[in-house]
Amino acid sequence: MPEIPPTVTTPEITIEDETKTLHITPWNTVLLNDNDHTYEYVIKMLSKVCGVHPNTARGMATEVDSAGRVIVFTGSRERCELVQQQIHSWGADPLIPWCKGSMSAVVEEAE
C-alpha cells in the first residue's frame, strides 16, 4: 500500500500584508572636482561608467568644475558603490602629464 504524503499547509496571507511596500533609501554617487583631469577625460569616463549621453556628461563636467561636485548616479547603495569603484579604477588622464590616477567620488545617502 502506497504511503500518503503529509498534508502541507500554506501560510495565510492577509490583505494588509499585500499592501505593504518596501521602501529602499536612495543613494548618490558624487564626483569630486580636481585640477588633474580634462573635460575630455570626464566626459568619456561618465559616458562609459554611467551610460549617459556625451552632452549630459559635458553638463556634469561643467558642474563639477564650477561647484566642486556633481551627482552622477542615484540608486541603491550597492549600485552607487559599484559606480564609485568604476570611477576610482578609470585611471589617469593621458592628456595631463602630471596626472597620477583617477578622479575621486563619494557615496552619500540621497536627501
Structure notes:
This protein is an alpha+beta fold and 111 residues long. The chain has one domain: 2-Layer Sandwich (Ribosomal Protein L30, Chain: A), CATH 3.30.1390.10. Helix content is 39%, strand content 17%. It is built from 4 helices and 3 strands. It has helices at residues 15-19, 39-50, 54-67, 77-88, and strands spanning 27-32, 69-75, 104-109. The protein has a 3-stranded antiparallel β-sheet. α2 crosses α3. The termini are far apart. The mean pLDDT is 89.
What's the quick description here?
With 111 residues, the protein is α+β, with helices and mostly antiparallel strands. The protein has helices at residues 15-19, 39-50, 54-67, 77-88; strands at 27-32, 69-75, 104-109. It is elongated, with a radius of gyration of 23 Å.
From the alpha carbons, calculate the radius of gyration and give it in angstroms.
23 Å
Rounded to the nearest angstrom, the distance between the terminal CA atoms is: 66 Å
The main sheet orders its strands as 2-1-3
- The helix/strand class is alpha+beta
SSE pattern: HEHHEHE
Query: How many domains make up the coordinates?
Result: 1
**Shape field:** elongated
Strand content: 15-25%
Q: What is the tally of helical segments?
A: 4
In the CATH scheme, the class would be: Alpha Beta
The CATH homologous superfamily is termed Ribosomal protein L7/L12, C-terminal domain/Adaptor protein ClpS
Sheet bearing the most strands, described? 3 strands, antiparallel
Stated plainly, the CATH topology is called Ribosomal Protein L30, Chain: A
Q: Calculate the mean pLDDT score and round it.
A: 89
